[in-house]
Design goal:
The complex is a heterodimer of chains A (116) and B (439).
Chain A: E1 2-9, H1 11-15, H2 19-38, E2 42-47, E3 55-60, E4 63-68, E5 77-85, H3 89-98, E6 106-111
Antiparallel strand pairs in A: 1-5, 1-6, 2-5, 3-4
Chain B: H1 3-8, H2 20-42, H3 45-66, H4 72-90, H5 94-108, H6 118-132, H7 139-150, H8 155-161, H9 166-182, H10 192-214, H11 222-241, H12 246-259, H13 285-300, H14 307-320, H15 329-342, H16 346-360, H17 362-374, H18 383-394, H19 398-411, H20 415-433
Classes of the chains: A alpha+beta (116), B mainly alpha (439).
Chain lengths: 116, 439
């Protein structure tokens, strides 16, 4: 079964991080990603550019509405994701707890819908 | 001895003629275990519930004439599983069929439950409990699902117990079961590394059910009493399945010791009787003894004590005092200090202050309460001003006491608590008008 791990954290806080902190975080993510690749649970994943680069699109009455910024203003912003393979929710949440940002942000675990 | 009483005692008469009420008793005893095993076998909550109902319906029709089978639990499980297979085959809707076909493959695997082995059923019961109390479900859903599936309450009974609409309860149950299925919450006992944390989660559900049932409500509310008993039953069940765990023993002891005072803590009209005024002869001695033995075991375990066990130890000291005057307040203060280190909450701070008042007098206790309210603890909780009022009254500061009783009245919600506070206020006013008693 596949789950999407959505990584939420406060961008403003992250921006304040020094170079040393950024390198440490990068290394932690590299190690974590390596470990789930080796474990066979990694299906995909990427970090995202900050929400200041986001554009939201809606189609209403045939007209495309394009606005600057993310869909909702929230305290924590979506900053990246992993797509993982896990036996069940317990295994998925155990992996989510190892995502480096889980220590200060939050990881939303969503099962992927399947069509047979 | 009638068939019914023997069944209640745990014996299973076989091949005897019996009536519907006897069958009913077997069901009540077996329902949750049969469900627990069926969920494992068919891999789906809803399908297992339907299958269990089918099996019970067939039993109602057959048992009164044919007698109870040798092993009613295994009989119900096997008939239920066959019914589940029938159901899967009958399902016509495409979407339903896809989900259920997977279940059929699992059901059809040749695991015939022949001799209902106690251990296997115990494992299934644990799986059911841990799944119903899974942290991925919200608290309301955990409570509803546990009461419905583990305690066998009807949806209507669950709704009534928590004073919520039956529709809302039914929706909660549907949503919870859907999440179990679609997020794949495992039907498993957690791995050893996670067991302590998950047991804590189960205990939180049981304790919530108990406190809901134990809250003083107006009049004799039988549903509430039943809820506290369900919580105790759950505690016993868990203690039987995972024996020797201090946190479980501690919570069970805590519930038994509090519940033992049930008959003494309210008047027939539902007015509160304070611990100091209770007729201790009305306390349930057998239940107290059981609670005391459990506290003893829980506290003897090595390591950091469970906060339930420490709370139970406090309840035990009250239970052991023949009269209010004999209460060992010094030890109670010490236990509250342990609790404050383990698990500090404003309510525990409040209780600690009340115990300090009994040892060192009202003045130091009042300082503790003022410090607590300065930190903004319990702002909307009537017990803090009520406790302040009691201390101020004992210090002879009647005007301030009156004001404190009034602020307690302003936030108290339950009718018996409001009546009690109003009574205290009235007593104070009467004293206030008597010049020999005023400050």
């Amino acid at each position: 079964m596949q789950y999407l791990l959505l990584i939420y954290a406060n961008e403003a806080e992250a921006a304040k991080m020094g170079d040393g902190g950024r390198t440490a975080m990068f290394n932690e993510y590299r190690d974590f990603t390596q470990s789930i690749i080796q474990g066979g649970q990694f299906k995909g994943g990427n970090p995202l550019q900050s929400t200041s680069t986001a554009t939201t699109v809606r189609l209403r009455d045939g007209k495309t509405l394009t606005t600057d910024g993310p869909f909702a203003e929230t305290r924590e912003q979506l900053g990246g994701y992993y797509l993982i393979e896990a036996k069940n929710l317990d295994e998925a949440t155990a992996i989510a707890a190892r995502v480096p940002s889980a220590k200060f942000g939050s990881i939303e675990v969503r099962p992927i819908m399947t069509y047979e | 001895m009638t068939v019914a009483t023997r069944l209640a005692a745990g014996a299973t008469p076989t091949g005897e003629r019996m009536d519907a009420s006897d069958v009913e008793l077997v069901f009540r005893r077996e329902a949750s275990r049969v469900l627990a095993t069926l969920i494992r076998l068919v891999g789906d909550f809803d399908l297992a519930e339907e299958a269990a109902q089918d099996a019970f319906a067939i039993a109602v029709a057959q048992w009164p004439a044919a007698g109870i089978p040798d092993n009613p639990r295994a009989w119900l499980v096997n008939v239920g599983r066959n019914k589940a297979i029938d159901r899967v085959r009958r399902q016509a809707a495409l979407r339903e069929r896809r989900r259920l076909l997977a279940a059929e493959a699992a059901i059809a695997s040749p695991v015939w439950v022949s001799e209902a082995e106690e251990g296997a059923f115990g494992d299934d019961m644990l799986r059911l409990i841990f799944t119903c109390c899974h942290p991925a479900l919200n608290m309301e859903a955990r409570v509803a699902l546990t009461l419905r599936s583990v305690c066998g309450l009807s949806t209507e009974a669950v709704a009534r117990a928590f004073l919520i609409a039956e529709d809302t309860t039914a929706q909660r149950l549907v949503r919870a079961k859907r999440k179990i299925r679609e997020a794949r919450i495992p039907y498993e006992t957690p791995e050893p590394a996670m067991l302590d944390v998950r047991v804590e989660g189960v205990l939180a559900v049981i304790y919530l059910v108990f406190t809901e049932g134990y809250a003083v409500t107006s009049g004799a509310d039988l549903m509430r009493d039943e809820l506290a008993r369900d919580a105790i039953r759950l505690g016993r069940l868990l203690d039987g399945l995972l024996p020797g765990r201090p946190a479980i023993q501690g919570l069970l002891a805590l519930m038994l010791l509090h519940d033992a005072r049930r008959g003494a803590r309210a008047t027939l009209d539902g007015d509160i009787i304070l611990l100091e005024d209770q007729d201790r002869r009305l306390w349930d001695r057998a239940q107290i003894d059981e609670g005391l033995a459990l506290v003893d075991q829980a506290l003897r375990a090595p390591g950091i004590p469970s906060s339930y066990a420490v709370q139970a130890a406090i309840a035990a000291l009250h239970a052991q005092a023949p009269r209010w005057e004999d209460t060992d307040w010094r030890q109670i203060v010490g236990l509250y200090e342990v609790l404050l280190r383990l698990h500090p909450t404003p309510v525990i701070e409040l209780n600690h202050a009340a115990a300090v008042a009994m040892v060192d007098g009202p003045a130091p206790a009042l300082d503790l309460l003022d410090a607590l309210s300065a930190r903004g603890g319990l702002a909307l909780y009537h017990l803090l001003p009520a406790a302040r009022a009691e201390l101020l009254r004992r210090l002879g500061r009647h005007k301030e006491a009156e004001a404190a009783y009034r602020s307690a009245l302003a936030v108290a919600k339950l009718a018996p608590e409001r009546r009690w506070l109003a009574r205290r206020l009235e007593e104070l006013r009467c004293k206030g008008s008597d010049p020999t008693l005023s400050d």
